[in-house]
Amino acid sequence: xxxRKCWVIVIVAMGYNCMGIAASASLQASRxxxxxxxxxxxxxIEDDETYVTTKLGKTPNPPFLETYQAGAAFTxxxxxxxxxxxxxxxxxxxxxxxxxxxxxxxxAPAKVAIExxxxxxxxxxxxxxxxxxxxxxxxxxxxxxFAGMEGDFYFEAKRGHQNTSLVYFRVMQSDEHFPPRFIMxxxxxxxxxxxxxxxxxYIESR
Length: 206
Hints:
Blueprint: H1 3-29, H2 31-35, H3 38-47, E1 51-58, E2 66-76, H4 80-87, H5 93-96, E3 100-107, E4 111-118, E5 121-133, E6 136-144, E7 150-158, E8 161-175, H6 181-204
Antiparallel strand pairs: 1-2, 2-8, 3-4, 4-5, 5-6, 6-7, 7-8
């Protein structure tokens, strides 16, 4: 094979490789976007609005369990690496989440026990966090209140702003019974907004 043909093959291969890397980066960057409506995502990106959703419902088929979903998306003026590092120091959640009164790391770095409550309702839960990839932390409530609940933290850079983080937090569960609707929806909505503000203030002040 001639030297010229070799260079052509190398250049083409490099081009495909770059395309693959770009596609991979694009896929990762769009993870939070894929979880929100286009309107909510644009408000988050353009206006730095905090997005919050809480919903208590029922499964359509027997055994007709109650279902719960809640989530919040918000921006933080700090790089993703800084945001992720602080939000995986789980002991600081006592300062950031209003209903947590006490938190203990049972098995470092990612198994914690939390104790707290809201509006006279008490909770005690054991949570296991799983580091999935640089942009994703998954967690499961393994024992206690809300046992079986699962959730995620997603982190990525804001579009066009590498020093601004987007954070999306969500939880979901199906169960026979949940606390009253006003706690799970209205109460949780206030808590999520408050938590987003506290996380933003805490990280931006570091």
